[in-house]
Design brief:
Blueprint (H helix, E strand, L loop, with lengths): L1 H12 L4 H8 L3 H8 L7 H11 L3 H5 L3 H40 L3 H27 L5 H9 L4 H12 L1 H23 L8
Length: about 200
Amino acid sequence: MELSKQIKRHRVALGLSQEGLAEKIYVSRQTISNWETDNTYPDVENLLLLSSLFDTTIDELIKGDVEAMEKTIANDTAKLKIWTGAFLASSAAAVLALVGGIWVFGITGPVIAVIAALYVLAIACCVACTRIAKRNDVMTLAETLAFVNGAPLGELRAKRDRTRARRWVLIALTFALTIALGLGLGFAMAPHVFTIA
């Protein structure tokens, strides 16, 4: 494909590393690597950013790659929808098996085996979705929905990057909230355990 060669040629001509180019157009270094190895293609917004940065037209960048790009994106979108549906179905089946199986049969080896198999299937589907999303630099639910609907991702990616910069604060708050919620539920559900003499 010509696009991968064009991106690499222009990047090198500007003296940029993959990471340097990634910073300039607000994507990950892995995304640039995927573009340069024909694993994925930039969306329209990124093509505009690249053409502006490289001081060239989009037509010159893509030269005949449009059809292949559309097929790859459509293929990844279809796969993402299938794996997401399989994840939701296997998760729902696992929950039903957990509740129904234990209710009807009790906690037995076969019931636990079925539940475990369904959860393993759900995890495998989730991993497949994550790989597709990572390959296309789609990491948040909003980005995934935009990707599936063909909407631009630039502003969503910028928002994600701002959030990632504050991730340790979010992790600490989530951890504190989880502990507080656990203690609160513990006191509410089992007051006799925490009685004061």
